Known about the structure:
Elements: H1 2-26, H2 29-33, H3 43-71, H4 75-112, H5 122-146
Amino acid sequence: xxxxxxxxxxxxxxxxxxxxxxxxxxxxxxxxxxxxxxxxxxxxxxxxxxxxxxxxxxxxxxxxxxxxxxxxxxxxxxxxxxxxxxxxxxxxxxxxxxxxxxxxxxxxxxxxxxxxxxxxxxxxxxxxxxxxxxxxxxxxxxxxxxxxxx
Length: 150
């Protein structure tokens, strides 16, 4: 039950991250709008903000359409239940994912290999797969705590 909760969260994270990464890659002005060059010296931090917004939006959407029909809730109460169900789990997932990607981006690729890790590289998406596993691992304890009767 806990693993399913974490994986449910991960589905929103995965879709949101994929869409956000390619959006910012295709339209670099999005990163600028989210603080690249003004607040953040490195583009990755602005991209993570976009990733989080997209992942959270998908997560709430998925949770709403799972919880509201199951509990017979209207839109308002269903949205509140979806937000309660997904906020901590999704945030924990994203933190685990960002932690690994920071290690890959700043240390492994930039410092060790002397190259930039970019969205249009196969290596980027391989690292994202490992990052998703890290996200699962960091969201699991949160889901253990949040999901009743585990």
